Amino acid sequence: RNWLSGRSENRWISKCGNTWNKFVNMSTEKKVFIGIGLVTILIMAGGIFLLSSEDDRLKRPFMGQEVKIESKNHVPDGTEIQYNSNPPAGGPHYETTAHAGIYDTPPPDGNLVHSLEHGAVIIWYKSDLPKDQVEKLKSVFKRVSGKKIMVPRQSLDVPVAVSSWGRVLQLRTINGEQIKAFFETNYNRGPENAPI
User: Fold this and answer.
1) CB atoms within 10 A of CB 87
2) d(C-alpha 185, C-alpha 189), whole Å
3) Could you tell me which of 188, 19, 43 has the C-alpha nearest to residue 116?
4) What sign does the CA torsion over 41, 42, 45, 50 have?
5) Rounded CA gap, 105 and 153, in Å?
6) How buried is residue 129: exposed, middle or buried, by Cβ count under 10 Å (0-12/13-18/19+)?
7) pLDDT tens across 164-196, in order?
8) What is the pLDDT of residues 117-171, one digit of tens each?
């Protein structure tokens, strides 16, 4: 049975009608003020939701194998740098970051590592990876968000690897879900949260 029945239903409908009529007859200035107030409340609620989601993400453990980082110093461009992992996941780096995007020719490791320091995640693939596999990786890359770079690497020991500051995930096959999870967990968790 309907909870609103008989007289109480008529009173409720009458109150709604009266409220609507009051709103319709309100000055434009008051309507704008109410509209701004409602939009502000919605924006604040959305912001609170996003912040709580980000807090949850930052509480998750990092993905990938941990790589010991001995330094995060800047060195002059062109300096030869030895890294503790292949691909690199942190260490000394050049002054300039590598910009986000897909590269056919990789920038120097020193620029890529600086991007990792700023919270980027990099997908590395073996230079001789078949073209259809590279296209599959590009498809995965386009579906993830955040600061991201995709580059070929001649000396890669596995077909595909993903790195963030201090972490590397090496993959024998392209696993889109695992790559996506790595991005979602590890992006923007470098020592500096800055643009690339």
Assistant:
1) 26
2) 9
3) 188
4) negative
5) 9
6) middle
7) 999 999 999 999 999 999 999 999 999 998 999
8) 999 999 999 999 999 999 999 999 999 988 999 999 999 999 999 999 999 999 9
**In a 3-state reduction of DSSP, which class is residue 95?**
coil
- Could you tell me if 66 and 79 are in contact, meaning their C-beta atoms sit under 8 angstroms apart? no
Sole residue written with tokens 């790589």:
67
Tabulate helix, strand, coil % of the chain (nearest 5): 45, 15, 40
Q: Which two tokens stand for residue 143?
A: 């579906």
- pLDDT tens digits for 21-38? 666 677 778 778 777 888
Query: Pairing relation of β-strands 160-164 and 148-153?
Result: unpaired
- pTM of the full predicted structure? 0.72
Q: Which amino acid is at 27?
A: S
